[in-house]
Amino acid sequence: MDISYILFIPLIPLAVFLLLGIGYQKIKPTVSGYIGVAGLATSAALSYYAAYQYFFVSGKVDGVYQTIVEKTVWMNFTDTLHIDMGILVDPISIMMLVVVTTISLMVHIYSRGYMHGDTGYTKFFAFLSLFSFSMLGLVLATNLFQIYIFWELVGVSSYLLIGYYYTKTSAVAAAKKAFIVTRFADFGFLIGILIVGYYAGTFDFETLNAVNPEGEGLLLNWASTSFMGLSVITWGLLLIFMGGAGKSAMFPLHIWLPDAMEGPTPVSALIHAATMVVAGVYLVARLFPMYYFVEDGFALNVVAYVGAFSSLFAAIIALTQTDIKRVLAFSTMSQIGYMMLALGVSSYKGHEGVGYMASMFHLFTHAMFKALLFLGAGSVIHAVHSNYLKDMGGLRKYMPITNITFLIAALAIAGVPPFAGFWSKDEILVAAFEKNQLLYFVGLFVAGLTAFYMFRLYFGIFWGKNTKYKHEPHESPMSMAFPLLFLAFMSIVAGFIPFSEFVTADKVAFEAHLNLPLAAVAVGTGLVGIIIAWIFYKKENDLAERFANAFGIFYKWTFHKFYFDEIYMFVTKKIVFNLISTPIAKFDKKYVDGTMEGIGNKTVLISEKIKGLQSGRLQDYAMFFVSGVVFIALIFIYLWTN
Amino acid sequence: MIAGISIYEIFTLTSILFFIGIYGFITRKNLISILISLELILNASAINFVVINKYLYPDVLQGVFFSIFIIAVAAAETALAVAIIINLYRQISSVEVKDTEIMKY
Amino acid sequence: MEKIVFYILALIMIVSAIASVSSRKMLRSVIYLLFVLIGVAGIYFLIDYNFLAAVQLTVYAGGIIVLVIFSVLLVHHIEMELEMAQLSKKILTGISCLIGLGLFLFIIYTNDFKVVENSKTTSVEAIGRGLLSYDSGGFILPFEVISILLLAAMIGAIIIGKGDKLTKNDDTL
């Protein structure tokens, strides 16, 4: 199978970025919008073609999906250790290509309406294209180092997009926060890469993930070196997961995600819902055989528990937030925790690998309905010019399309059949139930919470009290409505894709079937959540308020996100800055700088004194010359005659 | 060969001349005086060439040729130096070394 | 006899040289230099290089000295007294030069020169042939180079000596 055309999928957005970036001053906004959309549309078309080719025509050999790699050596260290650049095609990368290009295309189209009239219109599209390029490159990476390069590129473009409204202080702060937090996590990632590279002797996914026909990992020398009771490779994997957790906003590195909502809403939909934040999930999935086989999956267990905890934690916080984008942000974090959980409870072979499949499935469906939710929220914000629930209510009369599509997305995320979320969530719960009952109950509880806070949001925006608006809210233009409709359609049908046919841990298709009792329980939980939300928020009443008051301090804690931001601020400002950085800075200023400046000052002083020697008087020079020659000659004669 | 005079004595003479030249070169404050000191130095070395030729390698004439060349180069050099000095005198009305120091800028 | 002549010459040269670098009158200084140069010519006569002595006399004593005298007369009053260096500088230079002289003499006297006893007289013809010879040891190339150098120096001296007038009146040069 010739895969070279896949190279164009990331390269076209790059070309668009360069074109728009260089011609920023010259290109008219309308034209740049069309260029951006056209570029992404081409990429998306190529991705669909690639997906068709791979899944239905030539990807499968003897029932196993092949991993196809095309690469060139970029930097050569030793015979085995070298950094390559190339593209890697296997089921998950193809799936991610489809997800990224689809969502990106929708967001591009949507942005044409949403960003209309903005002064930095062209710049915005350039950044979007840069992000698309980075994300697609990340997806197609063939080795850890290449993925790291694109990982950082993704971080940079995310920074640029979050800080897009750079005149707003909060946006700049949020951009910095996102960048610093993820960068901190990437520090762990880099160390992990180096550890794995050093001890495994390669960066290549193929070699790292190699599995023999009996279904055992081939990276068997993992046990050779150990550190603090764990194999070094496990430490490496944990550090790599730290990088993934940073990008995917897993506890405790989640603090940047809510703030990142300062960016334009399409950006939130693209980056902080559907694509970039799942990079961590993708990374773990990419190294899944390694996580699974090394030290009997210790690192994978960590992934599962971190995922489950983040999921629960974020869901609880989401209950109390009043900024609709923040609710969605915590919801995203919660759902990604779900995916991590699913990966964590997965096994490798055949049907036992259902968790892996479910995780990827959920990634796929979640991308669709979460992007839809964000775009819908953007549409609402566009209409009422506010992020806060208190400014909304009764919007269903004004914005029918947004209302319907938002409802579909909410139902999807709540896990109501037959919408997409139901199918993927069900698979996750099945996987968790088979492996670890505790995690299953956490998952179930989170599902209920999700349904509740989603419908709290839905009823709060579209039903509830009838707010008096200064400007009559209006339905969004077609360019914004079309992506909503398309994604709503996807949210309905995506669940029926037989994912286990395509994406599995061992790349062999298996038959997934619905586990009716578990599905019934999950749906029941979701419905309970919806009904409670119905009672609380359908009509304007003070039930919710009384409830919140009953919980008192706990409510307050949750509302302040358990004071995590404050804790981090305390740790960094009070402890790190005051106790460590300030003395070091003083030392630096006093001694290091002092030494350097002293050398400089002394040089100046001495120069002042001896600059008379450079008098420009020929006779003085002759004098020095003669005396010098005589002196040196004397020394030589003394040395030679002895 | 000078009867009764060894090469050492001639060398002593030329060394003395040479260092007198250097002394003059460093201490004199007038461009023409410096030129004169230079002539002393040149002559001292020219004598050395000739004497070494005569005393150590009487069969060849290299030293003599070198002396001729030194004389020729000295003539050219003096002509140029005098031209420069006169030109300088036109410009700044002085041939003192301290007045020519502005040339370093 | 020759010994006495040499010593007299040496004495004249050293005294004249010292006088030349320490005289406060410019013209006298040049004349003392002339004595030194004549003394050098005398040394050449003594060691039987008559041609060289003649060249020395004509070019140095005849040409260069005249040139220098002319320049002195152009830029100085005859009676003008030269400014002298500070004493400290003189002493410092003097010490330095004395040490250097001592060094030279030390080296010269510790070196064993292999003197070949001879009393050859060199003919002008031999010098002329040597200068124009192409063979090994021939000096035809330096000879030509020195001719060019002299020409160049002559033109250069004229241009520099003419100075402003030339460049102002004729921009083509």
Topology:
The complex is a heterotrimer of chains A (642), B (105) and C (173).
Chain A lengths: L7 H15 L6 H30 L1 E2 L2 E2 L2 E9 L5 E8 L1 H24 L6 H20 L3 H19 L6 H32 L4 H4 L17 E2 L2 E2 H16 L8 H4 L5 H10 L4 H8 L1 H6 L4 H23 L3 H21 L9 H31 L15 H15 L5 H16 L1 H26 L15 H16 L22 H22 L5 H9 L1 H7 L4 H47 L7 H24 L1
Antiparallel strand pairs in A: 1-2, 3-4, 5-6
Helix pairs in contact in A: 1-2, 1-4, 2-3, 2-4, 3-4, 3-10, 3-15, 3-19, 4-5, 5-6, 6-8, 8-11, 8-13, 10-14, 10-15, 13-14, 13-18, 14-15, 14-17, 14-18, 15-16, 15-17, 15-19, 16-18, 16-19, 17-18, 17-20, 18-20
Chain B lengths: L6 H21 L3 H26 L5 H31 L13
Chain C lengths: L1 H21 L3 H21 L3 H26 L11 H24 L13 H8 L8 H23 L1 H6 L4
Helix pairs in contact in C: 1-2, 2-3
Give an overview in words:
With 642 residues, chain A is mainly alpha-helical. Chain A has helices at residues 8-22, 29-58, 91-114, 121-140, 144-162, 169-200, 205-208, 232-247, 256-259, 265-274, 279-286, 288-293, 298-320, 324-344, 354-384, 400-414, 420-435, 437-462, 478-493, 516-537, 543-551, 553-559, 564-610, 618-641; strands at 60-61, 64-65, 68-76, 82-89, 226-227, 230-231. Helix content of chain A is 69%, strand content 4%. Chain A is globular, with a radius of gyration of 29 Å. The termini of chain A are far apart. Chain B has a single domain (7-93), classed as Helix Hairpins. The longest helix of chain B is centred in the C-terminal third of the chain and has 31 residues, at 62-92. With 173 residues, chain C is mostly helical. Chain C contains seven helices and no strands. In chain C, α1 runs antiparallel to α2 (26-46) and α2 (26-46) runs antiparallel to α3. The radius of gyration of chain C is 21 Å and the shape is globular. The mean pLDDT of chain C is 84. Chains in contact: A-B, A-C, B-C. At the B-C interface, α1, α2 and α3 of B face α1, α2, α3, α4 and α5 of C. Chain B: NDH-1 is composed of 14 different subunits. Subunits NuoA, H, J, K, L, M, N constitute the membrane sector of the complex. Chain B: It holds the Pfam family Oxidored_q2.
